[in-house]
Q: What sequence folds into this?
């Protein structure tokens, strides 16, 4: 993305480890990116590659055992990791919002949707309860919930999965955040609803000029939402490029494999040339490129030394084979 654009979120050399009885294992190995105003960055990769850990670290929400061992995250130039607990609480939800995969775990099952929405609004904005309710109704309408005023009095279980995800989006947007972090927000939904929710997020993002980090394991949906794509593998960024550039000419063999699987799915080929093997278990790959064990083009050098992330042909790519 263009260096002279306004940068709202900047991640520099972010490293995360988990501790258990056997010791400390690094799962994110120095992730860096910049998110300009009004742009959508998709973070893509197979399960276990560090997408969620990265998202949680941005707002210091890692579960017990998780530790940010180095790096910086700044919001509009301000170091998030240096904020007090109170400052961080204010930032979360009001300037930077998150949506997760499963709305049932984020919504309180024993409270009405209306009380949860108005509580969030009242906690961050100086307004009356009546004004907060009016805002909650507007938000629900905006995300496509019909009979919004009446439905404020209903509980999460009275809504379908797609509607609950819409409500989570309403919650995330209720304070007009500058940045939305959406971690697999459509994964639990069926394909038709998935497409509707993606369109909703994209429309709302365009209308408000918000920036977003959109996390998914599904490269197929990225083309419609993202401006830029960052491919994570085994806790490393292996490739980053503008979305069209990446789709037109993927440089990393892993990205090529991901795209190849998509093309085959579209053509309904019987044998999917999915990438063979599995992503590395954290702590298992001590040297070399993390993708080398699965890479059809790997050379001895790939197994010996980790390539650096380098600018090549308008991409950032971490691969010895790209000249
Ligand atoms: N609470 C945890 N304790 C220990 N390891 C964890 C924990 N959460 C995630 N990890 C490890 O961190 C790595 C990245 O996980 P995650 O970010 O959830 O992957 P993704 O979201 O890309 O599927 C995985 O190897 C996972 O096993
Ligand atoms: Mg995840």
A:
């Amino acid at each position: 993305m263009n260096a002279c654009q306004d940068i709202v979120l900047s991640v520099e050399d972010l490293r995360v480890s988990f501790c258990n009885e056997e010791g400390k294992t690094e799962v994110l190995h120095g992730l860096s990116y910049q998110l300009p105003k009004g742009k959508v960055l998709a973070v893509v990769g197979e399960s276990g590659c560090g997408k969620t850990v990265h998202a949680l670290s941005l707002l210091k929400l890692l579960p017990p055992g998780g530790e940010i061992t180095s790096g910086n995250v700044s919001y509009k130039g301000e170091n998030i990791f240096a904020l007090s607990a109170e400052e961080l609480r204010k930032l979360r939800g009001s300037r930077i919002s998150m949506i997760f995969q499963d709305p049932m775990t984020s919504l309180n099952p024993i409270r009405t949707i209306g009380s949860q929405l108005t509580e969030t609004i009242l906690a961050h904005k100086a307004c009356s309860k009546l004004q907060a309710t009016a805002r909650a109704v507007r938000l629900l309408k905006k995300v496509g919930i019909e009979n919004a005023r009446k439905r404020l009095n209903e509980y999460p279980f009275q809504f379908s999965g797609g509607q609950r995800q819409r409500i989570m989006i309403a919650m995330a947007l209720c304070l007009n955040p500058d940045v939305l972090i959406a971690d697999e927000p459509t994964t639990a939904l069926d394909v038709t609803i998935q497409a509707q929710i993606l369109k909703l997020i994209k429309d709302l993002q365009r209308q408000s000029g918000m920036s977003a980090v959109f996390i998914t394991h599904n490269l197929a949906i990225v083309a419609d939402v993202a401006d830029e794509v960052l491919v994570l593998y085994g806790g490393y960024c292996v490739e980053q490029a503008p979305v069209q550039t990446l789709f037109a000419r993927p440089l990393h063999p892993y990205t090529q494999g991901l795209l190849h699987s998509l093309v085959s799915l579209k053509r309904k080929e019987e044998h999917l040339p999915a990438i063979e093997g599995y992503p590395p278990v954290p702590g298992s790959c001590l040297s070399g490129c993390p993708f080398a064990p699965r890479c059809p083009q790997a050379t001895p050098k790939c197994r010996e030394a980790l390539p650096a992330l380098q600018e090549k042909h308008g991409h950032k790519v971490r691969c010895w084979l790209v000249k």
